[in-house]
Write a structure and sequence with these properties.
The protein has 224 residues and is of the alpha+beta class. The protein has helices at 6-18, 28-37, 92-97, 118-126, 129-155, 158-169, 185-192, 196-208; strands at 39-43, 48-50, 58-64, 67-72, 78-84, 89-90, 104-107, 111-117, 171-173, 176-179, 212-215, 218-221. It contains 8 helices and 12 strands.
């Protein structure tokens, strides 16, 4: 495998940072400095990138691939909090309050990551009000998402939680709601707090009733 030239890495990093909502409004000179100081990391599928309880030293930006954020209980049971894709970040909460990592982050696919050291990120925050506001917006969105998940766990049955997960995971494509990325029944179960067998039964029922269709590896949500 050929190494990526340093200038090419810098250009790629700068382009990615420009397209991340968190860095909207950040002056180019600061983004260029972050891109220059950032470290590129390649991780293979199923690699644990960070572990809950680890000390915090970097903010990570996903350049390619996907990663899932999860927690485990003392018996090893897992709950998936969210799945992150290209341009999304993780680690900013711990950088702000200095606490250890709050969850495991595991590569769902082979990933290219951009790691921004805590010192560089803190200096960027100190000199940019827009970046501080964007961080606050990001944290508020995560809090709202967490509140919605808690509400669905408390008020919805498994059928409703699976239906909500399917809708939230879908995107509009030529007038249809489509789930492009493949999600295993096991991972769906970890997202909705149910057994794999129960999720399989719900998915089968949704398909039999015509609410969803599985076509060429994707799921289409049908209007009835």
């Amino acid at each position: 495998m050929h190494a990526i030239p340093h200038q090419a890495e810098k250009t790629s990093s700068l382009t990615l940072l420009h397209n991340i909502p968190m860095f909207a409004g950040t002056p180019d000179v600061q983004l260029e400095q972050l891109a220059r100081m950032a470290v590129h990391r390649k991780v293979k599928r199923h690699t644990t990138i960070v572990r809950a309880g680890d000390s915090t030293d970097s903010l990570f930006v996903i350049m390619s691939g996907r990663a899932k954020v999860l927690n485990r209980d003392t018996e090893g049971r897992e709950v998936i909090l969210t799945v992150l894709g290209v341009g999304e970040c993780f680690g900013e909460m711990a950088l702000i309050d200095g606490s250890p990592r709050s969850a495991d982050v595991i590569a769902e696919e082979n990933c290219d990551l951009l790691a921004i050291a805590r010192g560089d990120f803190t200096r960027a925050l100190a000199g940019n009000v827009n970046l501080c506001l964007n961080i606050m917006k990001s944290l508020v969105l995560r809090l709202r998402d967490a509140n919605q998940k808690i509400e669905s766990l408390a008020l919805m049955d498994v059928y409703g939680r699976v239906a909500k997960l399917l809708f939230d995971s879908s995107v509009e494509e030529y007038g249809l709601r489509v789930i492009r990325r493949k999600v295993s029944k096991q991972d769906m179960a970890k997202m909705v707090g149910a057994s794999r067998e129960m999720v399989s039964r719900v998915m089968k029922d949704l398909e039999q009733r015509g609410y969803i269709s599985v076509e060429a590896g994707r799921i289409v949500l049908n209007e009835n």
